[in-house]
Amino acid sequence: MLHYIYGTDLANFPKLRDTMFRDRAAQFANRLGWDAVTVDENGHEMDGYDALNPLYIIWEMPDGTHGGSMRMMPTVGETMVNDHFGHLTGGVKIQSPLIWECTRFCISPRADRKATAALVVAAGELMDEFALEHFVGVFFEKMNRVFSLSYIDADVLGVDPQMDAAGDRIAVGTWEITPKTIERNLARVGITREMSKDWFRASFNRNYVPTPAPVEFKMCA
Q1: How far, in Å, are 112, 131, 204 from residue 60 at the CA level?
Q2: Domain housing 43
Q3: What is the layout of strands, in order, in the sheet containing 170-175?
Q4: How far does CA 193 lie from the centroid of its chain?
Q5: Cα–Cα–Cα angle for 9, 70, 90, nearest 5°?
Q6: Is residue 65 assigned to a domain?
Q7: Residue 51 CA neighbour count, 13 Å, CB half
Q8: CATH of the domain at 52
Q9: Would you give the distance in Å from CA 197 to the centre of its chain?
Q10: At 66, phi and psi to the nearest 5?
Q11: What is the mean pLDDT of the chain?
Q12: Which end of the chain is more exposed for a tag (fewer CB within 10 A), N or C?
């Protein structure tokens, strides 16, 4: 199931919250070895932008834990792109109520391939329901392969000429989620657009009853 949760409401979802921040620590601090990230005494990876009440999109696993997530913030406020990566955009700030920043894209090591597809669908729903035109983000060039496999065409605005220890370079780009992209990723998740809309609306209306996720049955020999 997909959840759209503002930072101030994360306390209402302690299992999702804790497993999300721990999976972020596992991905960004342990596996990728980013020097700039901080892990607290609870094993949570958090930064200053988590204190600005961002909107978290979270894919929930069947056991109620975090399967994948990303952090969304309007560019009219503080963003990583404008605060730290202006040299990749020629010093031009990207600020518009129609553009939101996507950061901390994280997939749990326990998740399957549905997690990435579900997050793409969720980004499409956010773009559709909030009348957004683009997302912007900082990513490693190798992520272009993930974008391509998810039917997303990123418009690269700038690339750092310096490579990191793994031979990759940081880039800034924008992208949009088209209806065709949503439909293709819905098929990968195994849900309908109606179910995706249900989940979105249930996140912003606690009295809304969403359609339950489909149950997979296995034939016994």
Answers
A1: 12, 25, 17
A2: 2-204
A3: 2-6, 55-60, 66-74, 99-107, 134-140, 170-175, 155-159
A4: 19
A5: 120
A6: yes
A7: 3
A8: 3.40.630.30
A9: 17
A10: -70, 130
A11: 89
A12: C
Does residue 72 sit in helix, strand or coil? Answer: strand
Residue at 214 is within a domain: no
Name the band, by pLDDT with cuts 50, 70 and 90, for residue 151.
confident
Cα separation of 206 and 208, whole Å? 5
Q: How far apart are the first and last CA of the chain?
A: 30
Distance in angstroms (rounded) separating the CA atoms of residues 23 and 106: 7
Judge whether residue 160 has pLDDT over 80.
Answer: yes
- On whether the pTM is more than 0.85, the answer is yes
Is residue 122 a part of any domain in this protein?
Answer: yes
Total structural domains within the chain: 1
What value does the CA radius of gyration of the chain take, rounded to a whole number of Å? 17
Q: How far is CA 132 from CA 51, 176, 197, in A?
A: 23, 9, 16
